[in-house]
Design goal:
This protein is α+β, with helices and mostly antiparallel strands and 285 residues long. The protein folds into 3 domains: 92 residues, Helix Hairpins; 50 residues, SH3 type barrels, CATH 2.30.30.60; 81 residues, Alpha-Beta Plaits. 49% of the residues lie in helices and 21% in strands. It has 10 helices and 10 strands. A hairpin with a 2-residue loop joins strand 1 and strand 2. The protein starts with a helix and ends with a helix. Belongs to the MscS (TC 1.A.23) family. Keywords: Cell membrane, Membrane, Transmembrane, Transmembrane helix. It is a multi-pass membrane protein.
């Protein structure tokens, strides 16, 4: 026992009034392991349900992140106390340094505060689909300083949290899981308007990703410069891959137009040339 006691009290480092002994490192390791174990228990308790929808997962993720940050702050405070560092004394003694660091890392602190706002406010959750800087991004993780997402090209996007909280962001998943989309199409003048509207409606119904029980609307928009302009509106839950859905519906529309001999016109321009007949006569003679 004396050997163990002597080993634990062995001094590794001595700085002024403070000394780091073996038992201090053992205590720090013990606190670290206990913290990890507590977080593991909390995570298992929060996600104990086998089936959770996207909304529930997003809320639980935000709650767990806040709990994790609080527990780690308390844990680090205990670790510092273990080696004899008083938190209040440490903060008071380094006040000037903290001011300088704060000014230098102003943007970083801004991102951190924004991360806390996102996790507590929960206006943005994991799984939400956002439009940020004209890019469609699916949020995969909300961190303390940055959030991580994936765009439609399967590219990981690292987003500073302050960009989400201070910029105009469209959240396609905020109110409902299905959203209305539109496809514009023009047909040649002289086409049967009723038949065109019927074909557009049938084309949307034919796609499996379109919500059949929601209103599918077809509108005659305008008399364009070279076409009769229509708009097809439909609802879909496949928000992230909606461009693929639109592409498939356009293929169905094009096939039905070909079967019914409905033309999609291309832009045409008439070119008028004016010639000076006097100069032309002189050149001929």
């Amino acid at each position: 026992m004396n050997a163990i006691k002597n080993f634990l009290e062995f001094e590794l480092l001595h700085l002024g009034e403070y000394s780091i002994r073996v038992y201090s490192l053992v205590s720090i390791l013990f606190i670290f392991l206990i913290t990890k174990f507590i977080l593991w228990i909390i995570q298992k308790a929060l996600y104990r349900k086998e089936k959770l929808n996207t909304y529930e997962k997003g809320n639980l993720y935000a709650l767990f992140q806040i709990i994790k940050y609080v527990i780690w702050v308390i844990s680090i405070a205990f670790m510092l106390e273990t080696i004899g560092l008083k938190i209040t004394v440490l903060l008071a003694g380094s006040a000037a340094l903290l001011v300088g660091v704060g000014l230098g890392l102003q943007q970083t602190f801004n991102d951190m505060i924004s991360g806390i706002i996102l996790l507590s406010e929960r206006s943005i959750k994991v799984g939400d689909i956002l439009t940020i800087d004209d890019d469609i991004v699916k949020i995969e993780e909300i961190g303390f300083r940055t959030s991580k997402g994936q765009n439609r090209d399967e590219i990981s996007i690292i987003i500073p949290n302050s960009l989400i909280t201070t910029s105009k962001v469209i959240n396609w998943s905020h109110q409902t899981r299905r959203t209305r989309f539109k496809i514009n199409v023009g047909v040649a003048y002289g086409s049967n308007v009723d038949l065109v509207m019927k074909i557009l409606n049938e084309s949307a119904v034919a796609h499996p990703e379109v919500k059949k029980n929601e209103l599918i609307d077809v509108r005659f928009l305008d008399f364009g410069p070279s076409s009769l302009d229509f708009q097809l509106l439909f609802y879909s839950e496949n928000i992230f891959r909606i461009e693929k859905v639109k592409s498939d519906i356009r293929k169905i529309i094009n096939q039905k137009f070909l079967e019914n001999k409905i033309e999609i016109p291309f832009t045409q321009m008439d070119l008028h040339l004016k010639t000076n007949h006097t100069d032309l006569f002189k050149k001929i003679n």
